Structures are given as C-alpha cells and as structure tokens.
C-alpha cells in the first residue's frame, strides 16, 4: 500500500452562527492515487479542500501533508499543493500566459517559459496565450485555472468540480490531462457531480454528507460490498407460484408469470454467484428459461443510498456551496 501523502484527523469547522460545515472528519490520502470525494451540495467538500489549502481556518483537528503539520509548516506544504477551484476566480484582465507564469513565481519557482508552454499546449491554450482571460469561453477559463494550478508542479492536486459547466468534448479532454498528471506521479483529489467520472477514474471513493465522512473505500470494493444485483429471467412457460426449489432465493414472479426477478447480493457481493446458482436450480427443477438480463448497481446508486442512510447528522448551509 502506498504511503499517505495527506492525513486529516478530527477536522471540524463551525462558522459564525453555529453552522457546522465539517464534523470531526478523518481522511487519509495515498501517494499517487486518484481519490474522488462525493457528496451533495452543502456536504462540506469545498470547506475540507479550503482547510487543506489554507483558505479556511479549521475550528479543530489536524492536517498533515507530506509529513508536515499544516499549522506549523504551512508555506512548505502549500508550495507542493495545487488547487483548481470551483469558482472562476482569476484576474480577468490578465493575459493567459502571464497569469500562468505568475502562479509559478507565486510559489517560489524560477521562471521557465518552456514548462509554461508545455502546460498551455497540453491544455489547448497555446493559441490563446496572448488573449485576456475575460475574452475566453467558460470552458477555456476553466482550463486556465488548471494551468495555473499546474504551473508550480504540485505533488498534490485538488480539483473542485473541474468539469462543471463545460461541454462533453472539453470534459473528455480535461480527463485525458488528468490521466497524464497521474502518470507523472501527481496525487489527485477531486470532487464531482458527474459520478460516472469517479466511477471510471478514481482508485478510491469517499462519501461526505453534512460535514461527516460516511465511508472511504476502494472503488471496486465499495461497489462489491454495497452494490445490489438485479436479474430478470424470461421463462419458457408461465409460473403461478414459486417452486420450492427456488423459494429460498430473493425472487419474485413478474410479467404475468412469464418472468422471474432476482434482487440480492446486498452487502455480500455475491449477487452474480447467486444468480448462477438460481439458474442451475431452475434447470434441476425442469423450469426452462429463454433469456436472462443481469445488472449491477452503479456507484451513483450506492452514493445516493449512503447519503440517504446518513442523513441524520448535523447540517450545513450556503457557507459551503459544493
């Protein structure tokens, strides 16, 4: 298992007026992974990122990055962290190349025109290098935010809703660049409303709701452990009742007796195995079937279930808009 690059322990944030945005959050991020932090609006995602990046002062708790205590060695640790914020907050009157180069110098790196050109070309911004940021489309402005975050060559990169509000083609291009960053060894933590992106890209997934981390697990393990299998079996002849041979399985008769519906595997990860056992039991009982359609839960369905189950804790409001 890779060494942790970020350790968050007992992190809490209560805003003026008593609004609790983070509630004793613990999180450990492994070096070189892509970690997806999922949660509904107001869950605490942006507050957590802001706390690590020095934009939010925690009420309590401890943050260590690269083995450094962020409270004592903030400058050294922050110089190795990149942030692509959710909001398009940048100097709109500045030219693209100059804005990206400035971000590099801001973290103490020597000028490197070659590296800036490499970043701009990778993000399809080179042709826009002399354009003012205000002249760019929304998608191009978001690319500039990514370029600024990469300019000082961070080891840990936060992407807060990086593809929100951009078209599908631009989204695919951005994810290609994220894959390249990962190949270079950059650890990436992202928040996203596009759960299919997390399902495809992330190694591990964390679910946060109302300031509390509900679960963190390897993506595949989470989907196996919390997912559900659903199978629809088309029968060659109708059934009026379940035969004893299959009565122990979680099945129901459907389609006027011409089909069986299996729903199981909850919490066991054995759904597909049970479906295979069920079909064998049907064959042994002399019940013919003409087709079978098996479907596994998506990460989105698991996420929704976790949030609904954990929806009994504290609350946040618009202090945390992610």
Automatic annotation (TrEMBL):
<dbReference type="InterPro" id="IPR003593">
    <property type="entry name" value="AAA+_ATPase"/>
</dbReference>
<dbReference type="InterPro" id="IPR027417">
    <property type="entry name" value="P-loop_NTPase"/>
</dbReference>
<feature type="domain" description="ABC transporter">
    <location>
        <begin position="6"/>
        <end position="235"/>
    </location>
</feature>
<dbReference type="InterPro" id="IPR050763">
    <property type="entry name" value="ABC_transporter_ATP-binding"/>
</dbReference>
<dbReference type="InterPro" id="IPR017871">
    <property type="entry name" value="ABC_transporter-like_CS"/>
</dbReference>
<keyword id="KW-0813">Transport</keyword>
<dbReference type="Pfam" id="PF00005">
    <property type="entry name" value="ABC_tran"/>
</dbReference>
<keyword id="KW-0547">Nucleotide-binding</keyword>
<protein>
    <submittedName>
        <fullName>ABC-2 type transport system ATP-binding protein</fullName>
    </submittedName>
</protein>
<dbReference type="InterPro" id="IPR003439">
    <property type="entry name" value="ABC_transporter-like_ATP-bd"/>
</dbReference>
<dbReference type="GO" id="GO:0005524">
    <property type="term" value="F:ATP binding"/>
</dbReference>
<dbReference type="GO" id="GO:0016887">
    <property type="term" value="F:ATP hydrolysis activity"/>
</dbReference>
<keyword id="KW-0067">ATP-binding</keyword>
């Amino acid at each position: 298992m890779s060494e942790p690059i970020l350790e968050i322990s007992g992190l809490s944030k209560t805003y003026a007026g008593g609004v609790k945005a983070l509630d004793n959050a613990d999180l450990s991020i492994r070096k070189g992974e892509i970690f997806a932090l999922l949660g509904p609006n107001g869950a605490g995602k942006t507050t957590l990122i802001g706390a690590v990046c020095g934009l939010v002062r925690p009420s309590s708790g401890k943050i260590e990055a690269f083995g450094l205590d962020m409270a004592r060695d903030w400058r050294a640790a922050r110089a190795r962290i990149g942030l692509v914020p959710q909001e398009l907050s940048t100097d709109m009157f500045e030219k693209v190349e100059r804005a990206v180069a400035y971000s590099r110098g801001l973290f103490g790196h020597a000028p490197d025109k070659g590296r800036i050109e490499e970043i701009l070309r990778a993000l399809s911004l080179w042709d826009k290098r002399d354009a003012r940021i205000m002249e760019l489309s929304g998608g191009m402005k978001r690319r500039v935010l990514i370029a600024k975050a990469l300019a000082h060559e961070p080891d840990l990169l936060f992407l807060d809703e990086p593809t929100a509000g951009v078209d599908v083609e631009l989204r695919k291009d951005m994810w290609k660049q994220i894959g390249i960053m990962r190949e270079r060894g950059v650890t990436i933590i992202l928040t996203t409303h596009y759960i299919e992106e997390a399902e495809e890209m992330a190694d591990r997934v964390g679910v946060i709701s109302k300031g509390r981390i509900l679960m963190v697990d390897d993506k595949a393990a989470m989907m196996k452990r919390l997912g559900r299998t659903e199978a629809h079996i088309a029968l060659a002849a109708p059934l009026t009742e379940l035969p004893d041979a299959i009565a122990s399985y979680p099945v129901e008769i459907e389609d006027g007796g011409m089909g069986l519906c299996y729903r199981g595997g909850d919490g066991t990860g054995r759904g597909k195995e049970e479906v295979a056992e069920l079909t064998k039991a049907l064959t042994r009982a002399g019940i013919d079937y003409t087709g079978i359609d098996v479907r596994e839960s998506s990460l989105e369905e698991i996420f929704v279930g976790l949030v609904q189950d954990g929806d009994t804790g504290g609350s946040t409001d618009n202090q945390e808009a992610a």
